[in-house]
């Protein structure tokens, strides 16, 4: 307790109960002494892990090279929008000549899962629908990319080109 403050405990009270009351009194004193003081600025010391944080980390325009079994490496460009943005996220694959949209399905841990719908392009290697997993790398301007759908898997790394 603070100087001059005291806690009076009845003598018939058990030692365990006395400790609980004492701890409550100390906590109450700490809360009361903190009232009215100026608010300190909080420094972020933990990774951004909420769904909104993870989504904010992936918003922007990204490019990279992808690998897929049976194909030469090919390029991807994705413009990822916030789910609150009315515009859809878009993706274009060069080398296989496909493009379409990404829609957020869910966020789990640090990974954003998008439903990919290919609706433009003439490439014979284009698949209509699948799931794209995007995982931001903390402290870096890169995303790990993985696609699964239609019996196809591709993966690679994307780098930010626009904020």
Give a concise summary.
With 163 residues, the chain is α+β, with helices and mostly antiparallel strands. It has helices at residues 15-34, 51-58; strands at 60-68, 74-80, 89-94, 98-108, 111-121, 129-136, 142-149, 152-162.
What does the overall shape look like? globular
Topology order in helix (H) and strand (E) letters: HHEEEEEEEE
Range of helix content: 10-25%
Bin the strand percentage: 35-45%
Low-confidence stretches: 5-10, 23-46
In total, the number of strands is 8
Global mean pLDDT: 78
Please count the helical segments: 2
Whole-number radius of gyration? 27 Å
Strands of the widest sheet, in order across it, are: 1-2-3-4-5-6-7-8
Structural class: alpha+beta
Distance between the amino and carboxyl termini: 51 Å
